[in-house]
Amino acid sequence: MALNFPNRSRSFDRARKGVSFIGYDGMFEVRFLIEAAALGNSGMANTSEAACLDAFDAARATIQEAACRAYASRRGNSFTLTAHDIR
């Protein structure tokens, strides 16, 4: 099965400085975190929850494509996406 994202929820992870979201491969849950720096929020003033969530929402399609590429290259249940992963 292909990875999909039926649940549009996402949350800010202050400790890890990024936004977490979930994808599914059939019945299997796959957790993702995209770093704030990958969202263009690398400056300390821009790592607010609202700024990161807004940036995630604006780039959701690109982020989900990056998540699919990461998952396809190494099947697993947890991934961290960096600026390098976003094209």
Overview of the structural elements:
The protein contains two helices and five strands, in the order ββββααβ. It is an alpha+beta fold and 87 residues long. The chain has a domain at 46-87. Strands 1, 2, 3, 4 and 5 form a five-stranded mixed beta sheet that branches. A hairpin with a 2-residue loop joins strand 3 and strand 4 (28-35). It starts with a strand and ends in a 6-residue tail after the last strand. It holds the Pfam family DUF1488. InterPro entries: DUF1488. It comes from Rhizobium grahamii CCGE 502. This is DUF1488 domain-containing protein.
User: Helix content range of the residues, please?
Assistant: 25-40%
Strand content: 25-35%
Instruction: Report, as a whole number of angstroms, the end-to-end distance.
Output: 24 Å
Shape: globular
Stretches with pLDDT under 50, minimum 5 residues: none
- Major beta-sheet overview: 5 strands, mixed
Radius of gyration: 12 Å
H/E series, N to C?
EEEEHHE
Mean pLDDT, nearest integer? Answer: 91
Based on DSSP secondary structure assignment, what is the total number of beta strands? 5
- Quaternary state of this entry equals single chain
Give the helix/strand class. Answer: alpha+beta
Tally of DSSP helical segments: 2
Pfam families: DUF1488 (PF07369)
InterPro entries: DUF1488 (IPR009962)
Protein name: DUF1488 domain-containing protein
Organism: Rhizobium grahamii CCGE 502
